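Re: flavin-adenine dinucleotide structure - here you go.
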Amino acid sequence: MPDRERPSLPERADVVVIGGGQAGLACGYWLERQGVDYLILDDQSGPGGAWQSTWTSLRLFSPASFSSLPGRPMPAHPDTFPPVEHVLDYLADYEQRYRLTIARPVRVLDTTADDEAVRVRTDAGTIAARYVINATGTWRAPFVPQIEGQDRYRGRQLHSAHYRGPDDFAGERVAVVGGGNSGVQIAADLIQQASAVHLVSLTRLRYLPDDVDGRHLFKSATERIAGNAAEQENQLAGKIVAMPAVRDARERGALRLRAMFDRMTPEGAVIGRSQIEVDSIIWCTGYRPALRHLRSLKLRTKDGVPAVEGQRSVKDPRVAFVGYGDWTGPASATIIGVGRTAKAVVREISAELGHAEGG
Ligand code: FAD
């Protein structure tokens, strides 16, 4: 029985987009322009996707002018790197401005397919779709590595997906595990409030030059599309954008790096010959695509992601993926990059549905 609080859903739709974050909105924009019958399903109660759950000091790594979805530029912000609230305002305005059809909150529980339709089963009923575009991001599927002794550690452990700010760690000794952008930003965020911050990484920290930010990451993706990727790729892969707070912490010598844990203990961890004692461990160890709701379709390969051609599943091309990372198109997981992959997949699907080429 559908919950009374849930919106009522149609029995059928030509296209169901699962996920109403930036990737889902970009798909909605192009679907509107093509005049396709579509519906976006999102399990949050408000707009903004994962940006609603980040830590409060998070800032974009690109200026507003390099952080826009198709059609509507992100308004300028007085700070070079806009804060999360600016992104949330922008996404809320975006979906209203283009009158995107979004049902919230609706969670997709499972998806099955037969010759006639892809059946999207939700907590508000089932929709028979001709096509499904998945845009559920990665935030829902935080990844934590398995470390010997982890179950005996008595302190607090959380993933960066659940980190909200430094206040919760005042006076604590904290290990931040992960030498990527999230780890370095969270370590810098904690420095004023925690009594000790250990930044733990498998590799040494590799910063991009201080004048390089998200603009260059996007340029690199564009170059990859143009085919002259290798050099850009080598220069940028796995490197940290030196945001002002990170740069400041680095210049004060506050970001001290430690090698990865050999094993964990009830009080902390053993690293080589030394032992650290910590009250909390924050795992900044990345994400996996949030695709649990597709498990019945059995699309995943041994690499953990579905095999795709372009953005379409090889096993069932009625199912497509947008916004997860490079396997769904260069820079597809960024605000500015997702418009391009959304456009490509919507073009294909709307042509197959018999809509005239446009947009
Ligand atoms: P999401 O924003 O996660 O949206 C997916 C939506 O689908 C969510 O609302 C989710 O609740 C919903 N959903 C999931 N499963 C279901 C289901 N089964 N049924 C219904 N709904 C479901 N990108 C940039 O361009 N610039 C940056 O500066 C930048 N900084 C980043 C900083 C961090 C720390 C991280 C982790 C990412 C950053 N990104 C940045 C990358 C990217 O822009 C964000 O991760 C973005 O939120 C991804 O958007 P999305 O729409 O793909 O997914």
